[in-house]
Amino acid sequence: MFHWLEKNPFLFSVGVFLVIAFAGIIEILPNFAEASRPVVGLKPYSVLELAGKNIYMKDQCIACHSQLIRPFKAETDRYGQYSLSGEYAYDRPFLWGSKRTGPDLHRVGNYRTTDWHENHMWEPTSVVPGSIMPAYKHMFTNKADIETAYAEAVTVKNVFNTPYGDDIKPGKDAWEAYKPKVLEEAKKIAADMKNKDVKDAVANGEVPEIVALIAYLNKLK
Amino acid sequence: MQSNAALEYDYSVAKLFTYTTILFGFLGMLIGTLIAAQLAFPELNYLLGEYGTFSRLRPLHTNIVIYGFTLSGVWATFYYSGQRVLKVSMAESKFIMFIGKLHFWLYFVGALIAVITLLLGITQAKEYAQFEWPIDIVIVLIWVLWGIAMFGLIGIRREKALYISMWYYIACFLGIAMLYLFNNMSVPTYFAAGGVGSILHSVSMYSGTNDALVQWWFGHNAVAFGFTVPIVAMIYYFLPKESGQAVYSYKLSLLSFWGLMFVYLWAGSHHVLWSTVPDWMQTMGSVFSVVLILPSWGSAINMLLTMKGEWNQLTENPLIKFMVLASTFYMLSTLEGPIQAIKSVNAIAHFTDWIPGHVHDGVLGWVVFMIMAALFHMAPRMFKREIYSKKMMEAQFWLQTTAVVLYFTSMWIAGITQGMMWRAVDEYGNLMYSFIDTVTVLHPYYTIRALAGVMYLIGFVMFAYNMYKTMTSSRELSEEPQFRSPMA
């Protein structure tokens, strides 16, 4: 019945491709027209927050934490309002995660503070006895790559029309001109922290990873 | 017409991929065992400082197992059985031979770079699609080279009709190519921002819900076309060869092949149930996941019935045992998956350890067992020696089977316990447990899982040692075995 097809590898391959591509066309394409519209009032991530998001990705927080509150009473009681599609409009990539070894973080900015995150990342069991999360002490000495975060802001502004101000533009000079704003934001975070080395680094115009990460986590609400 | 004399097949590329299958299999399982132990004993996170945390090692584990171990196994078996079912030797074309070797070496170098960048935390943070854009380009090149080698061999074949295994290898090639390309579309920021920042960084072409949809359309189907389709290709070749039995039903293999091709791709959205993806897509994912039982069980039943009347081989030949158990685990896994894709079950199962449990009964029970059986079958034919030790194979079989059972049972209990605790409310409707309560309760199950990991790893080392001795010092064979693999 199908023997003729098995003797024509070219037709066979075309057939296989059409059959497997079918579902993608029906299921995925329609969603692209609308699902990335931001909810009213949603602001894109600042450069410091983007740097923090990149650290969240670099250290793979996504391996244990979700950012997706499902519409169940138990979840909205525990984490807050369930997640809406438009809240993720500026998330490239999405960071929903697939496993909760730790709790959901989609609205963690509502109920945790800079100070809490600082203690938690330095020694998780100091604030959550019994926690199996590793300490992330290296974040207090490693420097965040804010320049790359700036490049990311420029890219999403120019390629995907993410609404950033006119001072976010391509080129090294534009970055040098913008940098003080990032440092200003970092200083506000560091002011709420107690680690002496982190405070000194920020005063000297550097941004430790922990500062950027906390900026990002505080933005999640 | 060619003479009836047996062709001299050239196994040089198949051998190279056999070595990396064993190497990456060991590395992947070693890291897997370590991260399993880290969940039970968090102190183990600090063995390598920043580079040794669970979070940094987990993607390394998944990527080494998927792209290191499994793909090596797929290519080792392809470069072995492809020549045989097409009745053409690699040695007949200098060009194909060159492409095959280039394929291997580019792959090997690419794999090493991939491991290093993941350790350094250079990642897009999409599951099983972590690599940044320059590595993605290398991966595309590697894939294209495989395509050239495969379609080159098909082009000069002597056997007109493509054997079932070849259907599945072609599907693996096309499916992964389509999925990988679309999911990894990204814009490198260095160029878009006029030379600012890191050259390695990029942003996804898709955002938020769309990105999730494309990612899980990829993620689920990378499993389909990496862990299911090529492994089915293997069992369709190696089980009939090893047992000397013909495939039970040609019609059933047709039905299950085209069924699998059509249905699998729809099921990806069951990863985003109860999310912000539109409801009708979630329902499609859920429904098609259940339909998927038919083609999956079709292949598995076709394989089990191939042994009809010859079940005694199960007691005599450990290789048959490996393959029959692999088919059985395939059936278990492809029943468990659809159950988890039912919306009400998913509400409990999602985000819990039941999901890694499901993945691992599939991978450890089906994929790894099948690949090991395939390599055991190939070894006497590639190296012209009999398998070093049958007793060691038997011991390995039972050790690893016990390990898989311990793994999935502990994770089933852990996952359902956690899912139920998250939603438990008291008589006034207040949550009964804080999150940390649901973490600490899992300690015994994490310990059992780590133990299962150690057992499985020991089994794999026995496999590697048996293969090594087979290649180097086992008794030499004067002629190629017809079906049953000879073993001491």
TrEMBL record, chain A:
InterPro entries: Cyt_c-like_dom, Cyt_c-like_dom_sf, Cyt_c_oxidase_monohaem-su/FixO
Entry superkingdom: Bacteria
UniProt entry keywords in alphabetical sequence: Heme, Iron, Membrane, Metal-binding, Transmembrane, Transmembrane helix
Matches recorded under Pfam families: FixO (PF02433)
Coiled coil: none
Domain Cytochrome c: from-to ranges: 47-221
Segments traversing the membrane: 12-33
The protein's name in its UniProt record: Cytochrome-c oxidase, cbb3-type subunit II
PROSITE patterns found in the cross-reference section: CYTC
GO molecular function, one term: metal ion binding
Source species: Sulfurovum indicum
Listed SUPFAM superfamilies: Cytochrome c (SSF46626)
Automatic annotation (TrEMBL), chain B:
Biological processes annotated in GO: electron transport coupled proton transport; oxidative phosphorylation; respiratory electron transport chain
Stated name of the protein: cytochrome-c oxidase
Lipid bilayer topology: Multi-pass membrane protein
Matching InterPro entries: Cyt_c_oxase-like_su1_dom, Cyt_c_oxase-like_su1_sf, Cyt_C_Oxase_1, Cyt_c_Oxase_su1_BS, Cyt_c_oxidase_cbb3_su1
Gene Ontology molecular function, alphabetical: cytochrome-c oxidase activity; heme binding; metal ion binding
Binding-site residues, heme b 2; high-spin: H358
Entry's localization field: Cell membrane
EC number: 7.1.1.9
Organism the protein comes from: Sulfurovum indicum
Residues that bind Cu cation: H220, H270, H271
Principal EC category: translocase
One Pfam family this sequence matches: COX1
Predominant location category: membrane
Metabolic or biological pathway: Energy metabolism; oxidative phosphorylation
Record-linked Gene3D superfamilies: Cytochrome c oxidase-like, subunit I domain
Coiled coil: none
Family stated for the protein in its record: Belongs to the heme-copper respiratory oxidase family.
Keywords, alphabetical: Cell membrane, Copper, Electron transport, Heme, Iron, Membrane, Metal-binding, Respiratory chain, Translocase, Transmembrane, Transmembrane helix, Transport
Sequence intervals crossing the membrane: 16-40, 60-81, 102-123, 135-154, 161-182, 216-239, 246-267, 287-307, 319-342, 362-383, 404-425, 445-465
Cofactor detail note: Binds 2 heme groups per subunit, denoted as high- and low-spin.
